[in-house]
Amino acid sequence: MRHSWRIFLYRNYQRSSIKISNPFQVLPKHSPSLLRSLSSSLHTLALQNCHFSETHQKPKLYNKTPLFARNFSSESSLVEPTNDPDHVLLVCDAFTKFDEFDDISKELELHSVVISHDLVLKVLKSLESKPEVAKRFFDWVLEKDSGRLSSKSYNCMLGILGVNGLVVEFWDLADKMKINGHGVSGVTRDRVQEKFEKEGLKDDLEKLKGVFARGSVDNSVEKIGLRVSRIVRNRVWGEDVEGEIKHLCAEFSSDLVKIVLEHLVMEPMKALIFFRWVEDSGLCKHDGRSYNAMARVLGREDYIDRFWKVIDEMKSKGFEMETGTFDTVLARFMSRKMIKEAIDLYEFAMNGANKPSAKCCTYLLRKIVVGKQMDMVLFSRVVEVFTGNGNVLTDPMLDAVLKALTNVGKFGECNKVLREMKVAGFVASGNLQRKIAFGLTRAGMNDEANEFVDHMESSGRDMSYKAWASLIEGHCVSGDLEKASDCFKIMIEKKGVSGARYAFELLVNAYCCKNRAMDACNLLHDYVCQNHLCPWQTTYKVLISKLLVQGAFKDALNLLGLMQSHGIPPHIDPFFEFVSKSGTGDDAIAFMNAMTTKKFPSISVALRLFKALFKAQRHDEAQDFLSKCPIYIRNRADVLNLFSSKKFSKDTTTTTVSV
Predict the structure, then answer these.
(1) Which among 564, 477, 491 is positioned nearest to 527, based on CA atoms?
(2) pLDDT tens per residue across span 556-571
(3) pTM for the model
(4) Which spans of this chain does UniProt mark as PPR repeats (predicted)?
(5) What number of H helices and E strands is found in the chain?
(6) What one-character DSSP code corresponds to residue 412?
(7) On the chain, which terminus has fewer CB atoms closer than 10 Å, C or N?
């Protein structure tokens, strides 16, 4: 039977052949009451599903109030609502404030804004001085419901682009208007022509004049394609439709087929019927362009089987998937959470001539890990096909995946990612090791942190001192100082002490912040004596100051000797403050002795301590300290002069008080 494919396609098409916007085109005459009943039912169906044919393509854009109003000539109650003047301001504000379309849609839903043709024109007029915002709004409406855009809307947007000097964007939109059958109005031409003349854009001015010389909408392949698409879209397919198309006497080519299919993007089944009919009727032999156009139409959830049939057919005939086709269909799959289908598409494209970029691989990996179920089989497939084509995984790719995991609270799953990437020969660099180590221990994921350490060791790349320090820092931030100490101990056992000073300072600071300076002091003594660790001077300074605050004077003194043994200048400033405010003469002598190496400290240290005691009004302690000093200090002229001046000052004060 000739054209047997038609029966199969037509049978499958019957359920979606009724077009809501013109509900009576295929119905016989009925009584007025029956028509009213059917119209009411269609009204309810429209509010629930917007367009029957769009059910499986676009997510709902409304909660209670739809963003886009629909018109039915048979129901006066469904005439487009009058727009609240405030809605123009709300829409303008939303598109100025937000860049992402999802955020914009939510904002408009929140205020129950209904997008109508009239509102589109008002918003564009309000945004004449903001071409970027106007274009964002225009593109959003074009994506959500291009039916809201009339020739007047296109001309309004075209004028905004032209008068604001966006020449490239102006001509891009003018070309799209021509394809869609819209002409450039005289008003728009005059406005833009004035701008082009003012800016001295002679070439563009001549081009604009040329458009009107030959007519902005001609009888070109674009116009014929639009006519054909209207015939197919507005009628139920049959011999009368075929005859009407043939009656156009058009010369069919892949370009014409491509244009028709682009206009039938919202009618996938009709597009497929037309696609098959054109070749079966001998009107046109399909090539890569027409196959890609058909694939872009079918690449959606409810036509996935037909999509792959066309794709496989295209490949078998030696045609390649275009980059634009891949990008369009992939975006549609991802918006519908069709991750597996997206990976299938990616594998197909990677095995073709037009391979996706590395950014696409990263994008897919991120989407996989943030899913409800982290499907590592899909993750592995993406990695395998990416590296199998001669590419290598990089640090920025892993970093992007880690950020995605963090955003959804699944950072603890990073070891799964590392294992899959290890199979492909990738091992994280030092900076990423630090990021992972800190992230795991900070969150208290100790088992995952241990697994990460094991993973790095099994990868043949030891963790650096900085990565170990990040592990320790994470434990400190989480408040688990015992785990931090254990981790430091393991690091010393594995790597030694040569690069451990940074990590040790982190550990000491954490203990001091928890008012556990004595524990930190004990750790320091243990690692210095047993492992020959040489802490930084800053580590000593922090610990000495904290010990003195907590009254551990003798322990702080002991650290001075360790500093000297490491060739580090002793940190003595906090001792002057401590002794002068709360110390005794014996404490002062002990401090001086702690600074002693070969002989008692210099006279300058003693003088500074005497002055600190006098400043604190502790004359008795100063006298006691003097009495216990060596004779060479007691007999120093500057020491005697200091005490004499203080004694005279004290006597004078006493006399004054007595009088």
Answers:
(1) 491
(2) 999 998 998 888 988 8
(3) 0.63
(4) 287-321, 536-570
(5) 36, 0
(6) G
(7) C
